[in-house]
Amino acid sequence: MLSPVSTVKLSNGLEMPVLGIGTSQVGGFSQETVLYALRDCGVRLLDTSKYNGFEVQLAEVIRESGVPRGDLWLTNKLWPEDYGYESAKKAFKNSCTNMGVEYLDIYMLHWPDAMKPGSNNRQVRAESWRALEELYNEGLCRSIGVSNFTIRHLEQLKEDCTVVPHVNQVEYHPYQQPTELMEYCRRNAIAFQGYCPLAKGQALSDPTIIQLAEKYQCSPAQICIRWSLQNGAITIPKSTKKERAQENSEVFGFQLTEDDMEKMNQLHDGRHVSWDPTNVE
């Protein structure tokens, strides 16, 4: 049975927590709630990005939590406006400074589109990734990964670079189940991480999920998070409310049966509640 301190071993041997707390601009941000998750709920994985704009606030959270730096797993991401070899390294250092840390546990390319008109996305991704590889080899980030990458993007990165991403973080919830991508990641020793596990709240009113919540005497959110974890996805729900953060962390005392997992699996309809990267070259 999983527990709040459960981890998954990455291809480089590091142990990454299976459950964390996400931060994003959508839906708001509560510094107090993130602090509560770390200090009072046992959460050790904190996921953010430069794009979200909360690095300085999270520095305060990290400091005030009292959790030793070595016990935390800090994820940050390189936004496309900073793609490129030199600019990627500069952005990384700025993010570390803003967060008040000397290293990150994982640093990711945030999005496959370089967002640079007239440039070749694949070339810019490869150039940026080589910068991350150097940061990794220098020990400035303990692992490196990507976010929102499809199989095509991952294949290109494997051909162009040396280090295979340790993690791929993508949208993952009952309505968006990229099973082929998950299988690809498993075959290539890339840990699969899912964001938006509640489909930005859409899943909470689903009749099937409500029925399962009643059966297991828990909340619809806990059903979604538990399902995600049991499918092998590192999961990062976000919340701006303390009680929700606590609820989201209390998903280790029960397990969905195979039949109920299949009921959840059948909810897939392909909808995205976040960005869709499938058409990015």
Please, could you describe this protein's structure?
This protein has 281 residues and is of the alpha/beta class. 39% of the residues lie in helices and 14% in strands. The chain contains ten helices and ten strands. The strands form two sheets. The protein has an eight-stranded parallel β-sheet with strand order 3-4-5-6-7-8-9-10. Strands 1-2 form a two-stranded antiparallel ribbon. Helix 3 packs across helix 4.
Short key terms for the protein model shown above:
two-stranded antiparallel sheet, alpha/beta, eight-stranded parallel beta sheet, 281 residues
Structure, briefly:
The protein is an alpha/beta fold. It has helices at residues 31-40, 55-65, 85-99, 121-137, 151-160, 179-187, 207-216, 220-230, 242-249, 258-265; strands at residues 7-9, 15-17, 20-22, 45-47, 73-78, 106-109, 144-147, 167-171, 191-195, 234-235.
What is the secondary structure topology, with strand pairs?
Blueprint: E1 7-9, E2 15-17, E3 20-22, H1 31-40, E4 45-47, H2 55-65, E5 73-78, H3 85-99, E6 106-109, H4 121-137, E7 144-147, H5 151-160, E8 167-171, H6 179-187, E9 191-195, H7 207-216, H8 220-230, E10 234-235, H9 242-249, H10 258-265
Parallel strand pairs: 3-4, 4-5, 5-6, 6-7, 7-8, 8-9, 9-10
Antiparallel strand pairs: 1-2
Helix pairs in contact: 1-2, 1-9, 3-4, 4-5, 7-8
